[in-house]
Automatic annotation (TrEMBL):
<dbReference type="Pfam" id="PF02699">
    <property type="entry name" value="YajC"/>
</dbReference>
<feature type="transmembrane region" description="Helical">
    <location>
        <begin position="6"/>
        <end position="23"/>
    </location>
</feature>
<dbReference type="InterPro" id="IPR003849">
    <property type="entry name" value="Preprotein_translocase_YajC"/>
</dbReference>
<protein>
    <recommendedName>
        <fullName>Preprotein translocase subunit YajC</fullName>
    </recommendedName>
</protein>
<keyword id="KW-1133">Transmembrane helix</keyword>
<keyword id="KW-1003">Cell membrane</keyword>
<keyword id="KW-0653">Protein transport</keyword>
<keyword id="KW-0812">Transmembrane</keyword>
<feature type="compositionally biased region" description="Basic and acidic residues">
    <location>
        <begin position="113"/>
        <end position="130"/>
    </location>
</feature>
<keyword id="KW-0811">Translocation</keyword>
<feature type="region of interest" description="Disordered">
    <location>
        <begin position="109"/>
        <end position="130"/>
    </location>
</feature>
<comment type="similarity">
    <text>Belongs to the YajC family.</text>
</comment>
<keyword id="KW-0472">Membrane</keyword>
<keyword id="KW-0813">Transport</keyword>
Length: 130
């Protein structure tokens, strides 16, 4: 065998190795997702639909998903992309002693887009600024 054949076989072996590795990883991720899918869990589907699982039919691989109060759709179990983790919304006007600007959801004192900032960090308009 010449050197070129050995290099091609080595590249092929590496590609096959990564294919098997990627397949195992994808299977493990899918099993992890399936174990977290229970009734009452908030989920997102592959096509971007959010809802709450009402029931799971293991035999037919169907999930009853409530997408609005009283609206239940049946979808295939594998179309569920992920279980949505609940996040805490910022409700207070002040978080850790810092006021929030509710209109733009940015911290007060941060410059607006296009607002000039002096080197000392002062964002207040100066005399003569338009």
């Amino acid at each position: 065998m010449d050197l070129m054949t050995l290099v091609m076989l080595a590249v092929l072996a590496v590609l096959v190795f990564f294919m098997f590795r990627n397949g195992r990883k994808r299977k493990a991720d899918q099993e992890k997702l399936q174990s977290t899918m229970v009734s009452g869990a908030d989920v997102m589907t592959n096509f971007g639909l959010y809802g709450t699982i009402v029931s799971i039919d293991e035999e037919e691989n169907k999930v009853a998903l409530e997408i609005a109060p009283g609206t239940i759709v049946n979808i295939h179990r594998q179309t569920i992309a992920r279980v949505v983790e609940p996040t805490e919304a910022l409700v207070a006007d002040e978080v850790d002693g810092v006021e929030l600007n509710q209109d733009h959801a940015t911290l007060l004192g941060e410059p607006e887009f296009g607002q000039r900032v002096d080197n000392d960090g002062d964002t207040e308009p100066k005399k003569g600024d338009a």
